[in-house]
Amino acid sequence: MTVTSREWRLVARPFGEPKPSDFEFATVTLADPAPGQVLVRNDWLSVDPYMRGRMNDVESYIPPFVLGEAMTGSAVGTVVASAAEGIPVGTTVSHFAGWREYALADAKAVQIVDTALAPAQAYLGVLGTTGLTAYAGLTEVAPVKEGDVVFISGAAGAVGSVAGQIAKKLGASRVIGSAGGPEKTARLLNEFGFDAAIDYREGDLYGELAAAAPDGIDVYFDNVGGDHLDAAITTMNLRGRIALCGAISAYNDTELPPGPRHLPLAIGKRINMRGMNVSDHYHQIPEWYGKAAAWIADGSLRTEETVFEGIDQALDAFTAMMAGANTGKMLVRLQHN
Ligand code: NAP
Asked: Which of 17, 51, 60, 223 to mutate to test the pocket of ligand 1 (most atoms within 8 A of CB)?
């Protein structure tokens, strides 16, 4: 069963915001699976902020994309040919060979997912590293205690929208979110159960955060960095906790951003500020799956998706996500004829 597959490759390292000429959309032909391999028809692709870092030639916790090769990332799909024991044709699997229509993968590189528990694409979002990041951040990195005031930036995004709801379930007395634009802030209040919402593109972030948190904040879940982190330090209570999850405001910067101006306040306030990587928290997967599946089933955990259609739209989906076009998880759906 020979298939042709279209895929996205990085061909030049972007300087600042990625531009179309940094990428190539190519077609390849895939052979039949060798013994121990499966051929997966990708149905859903994930586009994520960390992929911007992989476009730079910088060593990190995950290697940079290789120029001229298909980019990688999380995907879920259907096994259409199998030479691997225990993974029959028709099985739904998740794996890391995204950014392409079909993937030839070793059996050990794919995980069988339970579509009875949740739709396949949930394994790229709430039941994938996205949901786990939110849960780990608020339980192990910057644990929420009963009665805490919690602030979450990037709150209408994939991680942030789940984090806000988890904070409430962990006993937070007040959950404040920031996001770009009035539509998103309305959704924070009306759909995701936040108590207060700040449109960071309008007005004075420091003043609005202080007004939304008259008693200060105890926990900050940072998806954004920059002014958001600085405002959170300024507003934080004694012995506050900060989970440094992401700094998307700086991902396209061509120079290192200045550090938080109010960092010295962290000394007197005894703030515990911790960087996190979700890969340190895989031991929490069973615990998170159990809770998330129950909350999804009883309707108490709302998840949102923004979907772009077709492999040819994958790069646009990534760029749009970086610019804030998504609410909840940004996904690419591939429909095959
Ligand atoms: P996301 O929030 O669904 O999408 C990115 C969002 O970032 C956009 O929708 C946009 O929303 C916001 N944004 C873009 N530029 C911004 C800016 N200059 N200032 C403020 N907000 C900006 O993405 P996600 O997958 O859930 O990831 C959220 C963060 O978590 C990212 O920083 C990511 O790197 C991080 N992360 C970390 C880990 C880890 O292990 N440490 C794991 C997963 C994700 P607005 O419209 O609100 O601007």
From this structure: 223
Q: Please name which of 202, 151, 208, 162 lies closest in space to residue 181, comparing C-alpha atoms.
A: 202
- Is there a contact between 197 and 172 (Cβ–Cβ < 8 Å)? no
Helix (H, G, I), strand (E, B) or coil at 128: coil
Q: Average pLDDT of 247-266?
A: 94
Cβ-Cβ contacts under 8 Å for 101 (sequence gap 6 or more): 5, 6, 7, 41, 42, 311, 334, 336
3-124+304-333 folds as: Quinone Oxidoreductase; Chain A, domain 1 (3.90.180)
The pTM of this model reads: 0.97
Task: Scan for tokens 């061509």, then name that residue.
Answer: 254
Amino acid at 121: Q
What is the location of CATH 3.90.180.10 in the chain?
3-124+304-333
Cα pseudo-dihedral 56, 62, 66, 72, rounded to 10: -110
Rounded CA gap, 176 and 144, in Å?
Answer: 14
String of DSSP letters for 176-243: EEEESSHHHHHHHHHTS--SEEEETTSS-HHHHHHHH-TT-EEEEEESS-HHHHHHHHHHEEEEEEEE
Helices (H), the chain: 50-54, 129-136, 158-169, 182-190, 205-212, 226-235, 265-268, 285-297, 314-322
Segment 180-213, tens digit of pLDDT: 999 999 999 999 999 999 999 998 999 999 999 9
Residues of the chain with CATH 3.40.50.720: 129-280
Residues with CB under 6 Å of ligand 1 are 48-50, 129-130, 133, 154, 156-160, 179-180, 184, 223-224, 245-246, 248-249, 276-278, 321-322, 324, 326, 330
Overall CATH class of domain 129-280: alpha beta
